[in-house]
Amino acid sequence: MRCSVVLMRIGDEVPPSFSVTISKGPFLSHWTLTEGELHMPDRVVWALLAVAVFAEVNRSEKNTGSYYLSLGTEQFPICDWWGREKDFRPVSDRYNKIRVKLDGLER
Which end of the chain is more exposed for a tag (fewer CB within 10 A), N or C? Predict the structure, then answer.
């Protein structure tokens, strides 16, 4: 597998070979990875936010409001879940039964 790197500057338009696509249904997320292209589901944005919220290093963060993250039918108010990685892990394990390992991505 050959990986290429695309360097962009802030303000550059994102090329059509890279996109965030709208997910359909409650659990199905579709990725397209081909040479020079990456199209990822919109759920990646929420997953990255969840990593930041649940990460133990962010335990001291505070916010107000009624914003929440969800997984399946469960809701996690952001103001109550900062840094609770260890509490969230058993919940996520119930939903994430498939594990994928990507080989050959190192340089």
Answer: C
Binned average pLDDT, 10 residues per bin, the chain of 107 residues: 62 85 81 89 92 96 94 93 96 82 72
Question: Dihedrals φ, ψ of 64, to 5°?
Answer: -120, 170
Domain ranges of the chain: 43-95
Which 3 state secondary structure label does DSSP give 95?
A: helix
User: Could you tell me which residues come within 8 angstroms of residue 35 by beta carbon, excluding any fewer than 6 positions away?
Assistant: 2, 4
The residue to which tokens 């058993």 are assigned: 90
Q: Are 72 and 97 in contact (CB under 8 A)?
A: no
Contact 39, 21 (CB under 8 A): yes
- Kindly state the helix (H) or strand (E) to which residue 77 belongs, with its residue range: strand 74-77
